Amino acid sequence: VPQVQTRAEELSELYRELSQHPGLSTACLGPDLTTQYGGKYCSLYTEWSQRDLARAENIKFCRQYLIFHDGASIVYSGPAGTCSEIKGELLSRESPSGTLKAVLRKVPGKEKEKEKQFLEVWDQNRKVKSIDLTALDKHGSVYDDDQFGCLAWSHSETHLLYVAEKKRPKAESFFQSKAPELGTSDEDAGHPKKEDAPIKGEQFVYHEDWGETLSTRSVPVLCVLDIEGNSISVLEGIPEHLSPGQAFWSPEDMGVVFVGWWHEPFRLGLRHCTNRRSALFYVDLTGGRCELLSEDTRAVWSPRLSPDGCRIVYLENNVLGPHQQCSRLRMYDWYTKHTSTVLEAVPRQAWGAFPGIYCGALPGMCWAADSRRILLDTAQRSLQDVFVVDTATGTTTSLTDDAPQGSWSVLTIDRDLLVAKFSTPSCPPILKVAVLPAAGHEAQTQWICLQDAPPVPGISWGIRTLQPPPEQEHPQYRGLDFDAILMRPSEGPTAQKPPLVVMPHGGPHSVFTAGWMLYPAALCRVGFAVLLVNYRGSLGFGQDSVASLPGNVGTQDVRDVQLCVEWVLQEEALDASRVALVGGSHGGFLSCHLIGQFPDTYRACVVRNPVVNIASMVATTDIPDWCLTETGLPYKPDALPDPAQWTEMLHKSPMRYVDQVRAPVLLMLGEDDRRVPPKQGLEYYRALKARGVPTRLLWYPGNNHALAGVEAEADGFMNMALWLLKHLQ
Predict the structure, then answer these.
(1) DSSP-H helix ranges across 574-619
(2) Burial group, residue 574, by CB count within 10 angstroms (0-12, 13-18, 19+)
(3) Which option is the CATH number for 139-172+209-345: 3.90.1150.10, 2.130.10.120, 3.40.190.10, 3.90.226.10?
(4) pLDDT band at 38 (very low <50, low <70, confident <90, very high)
(5) How many CB atoms lie within 10 A of CB 457?
(6) Residue 54 pLDDT more than 90?
(7) What is the similarity comment for this entry (predicted)?
(8) Cα–Cα distance between 567 and 8 in angstroms, integer?
(9) Taking the model in full, what pTM does it have?
(10) Is 585 a residue of the active site?
């Protein structure tokens, strides 16, 4: 026992150290100022997030920098002052001129009052407005998520646009007793004439929501604050069958452009699902007329208006099918009303060519000053790179080809000053800045490091590429290969021949890019080699790879991971007698498959919110379409349960192989998971217990699918590491 305690103390110390590396979330450039000597400079405001283990919460802090530039290059850059924690800010946005800032803030209620929301306006050195949105009672809570939420200044800087939950009429019991109101005649007594008189019988009506992480989002409305008049109006004219979000002001402030998601016949989960029917709309502020700007049979998101107000770029996918795909980049011309395709989906990745767009969103500010080029980051196999796209010609240029390999993300671009973050599996996020060169010279981009992060010692990493054998080729998509990122300890007692932890990603249509990841880095420091597998179906390899997996889950993806494991055990100095699996969601699905299909390879397994039985998941998840699509079946909202389809789902599930499982299994489940409800993990737990397989279950209240609560994440790491150490001794 003392030995285990000592080990636990060492692990907690290691986790404490590595979890302190902050993540970089947003960046905003202030207006250009001129020194008395004619030099130009501007401020850069950045927001970071960090785990505070003592408080068991994620905290946000800000830091400012100064950038001196001559329009062509950065002359000097450096920090201005130290960090300070940000409290209660849900959203914030600088005005177009940079002289004002809007902040949506949550404030705890006094005594028994509920939490309140305030909308504030700040000028250069004071708060000039503080509006109690809760007291005005025009709508429910303001949305601060990145799915619907927005906080947008009008070009005139007189109005603010945001999204909130539609106000619900008050409801009361049929048997509510009331005192007669004074000064009313007998027949009027107890019948308030106000619009918000409570409605009887509505107390327990079910309100649909938008699923995982969006369970408090049901009916969004667009709201406008008139800053001068302190008045709020809820926009009229948006069709009843649409849920609006991601809104901004049209050129000239005559109306609002927004993305509208169809919610009939019922809502499906929206988080990480860029395949939900949606379109781009314009609503006129004066007449309330609503106009369709894009095709209405696709899925669209991330609309961004060019600085000259002439063009809107946005991302587009097909409706249904895989939740994440290779997307198209579309452009709408505000004045000619013409829509063009700037970039099509890419069937196959090829080095030296554009890999395709695989991103959850375009950067909030993505346009170059010429209103012709845009910047985006995207997965390129197991790397993430930054590209500039000429919207007139569709030509693309990488800005990170000659820069260090890893994971690059664009934070913002303003007046051609470009801010990005960069990390690798052994280096936490670094803040980088550059000036975007003139068109045609973008490959000469010079990145400057503004905030360094010391590399974490003791970790080496590399990318390996694998080709499936001919018998495992997809008949329709031959010649597809895939990658894995191998991390290994470069120092310590196990460095010569470490045990191996295999981690397949979730999704299945997502990807491990070679960036900073806390769990793999920490496991590597404990002494494990970590294999992150981007099996066929992952993003970043072309649309053919994505399309190859639906209908083949449980076979193609499982074989890819097993092939990869057998190959690295043969090629690398690793301990083949000590191999374990760690996976979440679809990675948990694969881990449970692998310990059942290849029981001789694996000695231990840790799974987080795993899919174990697609047939029992379909009726409880917020994404029933996923269950059918990945099984290779068509999804229709009105389809009834079909025994043949259920058989097919069960046939492709890990539950089918549970009789062969011998490896001890640690399960971690989020009580509030709407995506893969915890009943899935419980089903597996009971099946393992009934077969005498050593198993342990951790149940995390207040956590959803990601298990990303600071306490759950920290406890999860400790239990995972101790489980692996115990069973791989």
Answers:
(1) 586-597, 614-617
(2) buried
(3) 2.130.10.120
(4) confident
(5) 9
(6) yes
(7) Belongs to the peptidase S9C family.
(8) 33
(9) 0.96
(10) yes
